[in-house]
Queue: 2 jobs
Job 1
Amino acid sequence: LLDEVHTYAGATGAQAALTLRRWRHLLAAPIGWVGLSATLGDAARFFADLTGAHPDRVIEITPTVEEYAEEGAEYQVLLRGDPGSRTSLLSTTIQTAMLLPRLLDPPGATDTSGLFGRRAFLFTDDLDVTNRLYDDLRDAEAYTIFGRPDAQRLPLANIRRAGPDAAVRDVEGQRWRICEDIGHPLDRRLIVGRTTSQDAGVNQAANIVVATAALEVGFNDPLVGAVIQHKAPRGMASFLQRKGRAGRGRAMRPITLTVLSDYGRDRAFYQAFEHLFDPTLEPQHLPIRNPYVLKIQAVFALFDWLAANTGGYEKAWQWDILSRPHPQPSPAVRAVLDLTRTKLTQLVQGDPATIESLQTYLVSALGLSRDIVDTLLWEAPRSLLLEAVPTLVRRLFRNWELAFPTAAGTLDLQENFHPLPDFVPRSLFSDLSLPEVRV
């Protein structure tokens, strides 16, 4: 069962698709796939690409137009930063995040209609921007860098409360009387939370949660009444998931506010606003024939092939064996290590039967033609038989020792539980790091 299938997009989605093919090949048994997504165009073709199933064997189940029930309402706002104000777009988003949660129902209030929710989500498409927004927003709400309330300061929203010049500020939009009318004292801090791949869970007490795509799936929240999108969304499927938060009551009237700059894609979306107000889902395509992705998956498949051909009653983890020296291995590890060295030696020496075995395995495990597999085996960059295997042989037989040790270290590029870090990333969603310069 694959939930929220639309999230398998781009190079990361292609890595996942080829990993599923390798897993299915290792199982050597029929598998029935079920995928779920409410925001996927041309779903049958996409799911066939993801799972490796034949398109004719994929059935799409989707409701008809007559089965939809239309009720309720939503509010959508596009907010464009002023390039002449000499402020960054991040500043505009921070002020938006200070105001919008204070337009929702106050936490703990019992005399509300429940139409507008009590919590806001702020989405970005960049982890670095998420972290900056989180820190800056906490600072604006008068928290210390450690996340504790700063007794020496009040939140910046306090500047917008009543005062001697309230009438003048009201003309300029600098008086937030509506927040106080709703029940939000402007000298009271908002509770700011964060949900990314680095953080687990959601702070249930938070008034606003700064998040990445990690919060799009697997979490229902009946209290979310507003969603802020920082800059133009990268995908309409993702944007629909964000604005259509699961868990809400059907009577709620959610607010979606998108903060756009005056440049690039943001400007195009602002001028063609209907694409954000009524998004259309374009078919997604997985780059499963991308050479960069295939080179990485071929090395992973090499590890699978070694595990399948060295397994017996002795048990050892290839991921560990191929990533670090073993000066005093156990008998089981030694037996598997010797078999691994034998197989790799046969590949380096050009043994036809061994190369044919690896080639056949790659064809079946990755679902590729022999021509493409030959390219992966022999053609630069990072060819399997001319670069990856010789590098692995050198490290295994020499215990990762450098021929010319320096003060910087005595071992070749070595990371525990990460074999061949110069050929494969540590995780499927990471980029390959090629250390051309080592300090």
Job 2
Amino acid sequence: DPLYDLILPLDWNWPEARPGKGSAIFIHQWRRPGHPTAGCLAFARRDLLFIARHAAPGSRVIIPG
């Protein structure tokens, strides 16, 4: 599945995993605009490549609510 050719794992619930808090959150390619994920963050391939080129260890993902 090309959606997962490039993934960026986030450190959600790691390294000390807590039961019931979910196992992982990834940044990956979206299937199509508006299509839901299973709790991950999904982007157009062009945007995902931009994020991958500019992310570095210690980069923060902020999701405004």
